[in-house]
Amino acid sequence: MTSDQHTGEAPFDPNAFLLVPPRTFNDLKVGEVFRAPSRTLTDAHAAAFQTVSADNHPIHYDTEWARTHGHSAPVVHGLQVLAFTAPGATLFPHVIGEVFISFLEVSCSFLGEVHSGDTLYPALTITALEPQGEIGIVVTAATIHNQRGELVLSGQHKYSLHR
Asked: Alpha-carbon torsion 83, 88, 91, 93, what sign?
């Protein structure tokens, strides 16, 4: 006898634990926005990324070197800032989880410096839905604003989904 037989509850269903109802390619809409929670970068984040990336340029950790070269403070690694556009920080991969095939492409422009202490606000906005036979390509604009509302990163992601 299973526990649900003892309690009279419905049988266990793992789909009842999904964060959001799964959707198909055809359910998505251009203009939908998937935001990630804001995060404030610290020196510890920068040091951890420096360790993982092995990028040891002094612009990222030497305050005097950065100031001598025209920066107000050490600059957070660009790839670390780009990582804030990871779709997994939003609900997007939960929405497309059942039909997701692959993350195809990423590109970006770095529009402003990011420093320790800055708070970043990432978002993915669907800009195109391109049916291609049995698959569909989802194109999103990837943006990051800082606490002053300045756009510090603008880019694009592409994903392939089953149709």
From this structure: positive
Task: Place 16 in a pLDDT band, splitting at 50, 70 and 90.
Answer: confident
End-to-end CA distance of the chain: give it in Å, rounded: 40
Question: Are 81 and 144 in contact, with CB atoms under 8 Å apart?
Answer: yes
Q: CA-CA distance, 133 to 137, in Å (whole number)?
A: 10
The pTM of the whole model exceeds 0.85: yes
- Whose CA is closest to 76, among 121, 42, 51? 42
Q: Which of 126, 129, 128, 118 is nearest to 143 (CA)?
A: 126
| Residue of 154, 157, 121, 153 lying closest to 139 (CA atoms) | 157
Q: What CA–CA distance (Å, rounded) separates 31 from 106?
A: 19
CA distances from 22 to 19, 34, 45, 94, 133 (A): 9, 14, 33, 7, 21
Contact 144, 153 (CB under 8 A): yes
The residue assigned the tokens 């030497």 is 62
Q: What is the pLDDT of residue 4?
A: 54
